[in-house]
Automatic annotation (TrEMBL):
The keyword Acetylation belongs to this UniProt entry's keyword annotation: no
UniProt keyword Transcription present: yes
Gene3D superfamilies with a match to the protein in the record: 1.10.1740.10, Winged helix-like DNA-binding domain superfamily/Winged helix DNA-binding domain
Species: Rhizobium laguerreae
The RNA polymerase sigma-70 region domain, residue ranges: 24-91
Name under which the protein is recorded: RNA polymerase sigma-70 factor (ECF subfamily)
GO biological process: DNA-templated transcription initiation
Length: 179
């Protein structure tokens, strides 16, 4: 069946023509079912999704426009989206309650947390060794993400001066951290 014929059937479905709907189902059902089955990988779920697809087609046929794209692509998009929705709606199945406890914690372990806190304290101590305005500039540049130009404007200094401040401040911080 050609795209024009499918578009014509969709147009007739939009007018509530049940015979056109049956013809549309007969012509496009196998293709849309294969899309659902490929995504869901379960025949029963694919059949249920296909039913939802045709309910949606019946309800949304008026929104189809020949100028917006091919009729086959429109139908395939509905089948794909319904199948993905069904896939997302699946609830994870746990065989036993104990399997939940086997999930790995993605957060840092206590040792890593301690190391991170120690490094944070060292950085804070080293930042105190910088001149106050240089320390503020470093924080705004590397923590808040301000650009060199924004910092130069805020501190009322030329752009190259700001670059020099930051470069020298980073060198001092590196020296301090290596001690």
């Amino acid at each position: 069946m050609q795209g024009d014929e499918i578009a014509d059937l969709i147009g007739r479905v939009a007018l509530g023509d049940r015979r056109a709907f049956v013809a549309l189902y007969n012509q496009t059902g196998p293709k849309l079912f294969s899309i659902c089955l490929r995504i869901l990988k379960d025949r029963t779920e694919a059949e249920e999704a296909l039913q939802e697809v045709y309910i949606s087609i019946w309800q949304r046929a008026r929104s189809f426009s020949v100028s917006s794209g091919s009729s086959s692509a429109w139908l395939a998009a509905i089948a794909r989206n319904r199948s993905i929705d069904a896939l997302r709606a699946r609830k994870p199945v746990a065989d036993e309650l104990d399997t939940v406890y086997d999930l790995a914690d993605a957060g840092p372990d206590p040792e890593m947390q301690t190391v991170t806190k120690d490094e944070g304290r060292r950085i804070d101590t080293c930042m105190e060794e910088l001149e106050a305005d240089r320390a503020v500039a470093v924080k705004r540049a590397y923590v808040e993400g301000l650009s060199y130009q924004e910092l130069a404007d805020q501190f009322g200094v030329p752009l190259n001066t700001m670059r020099t401040w930051l470069r020298r401040s980073l060198l001092k911080l590196r020296e301090c951290m290596e001690r």
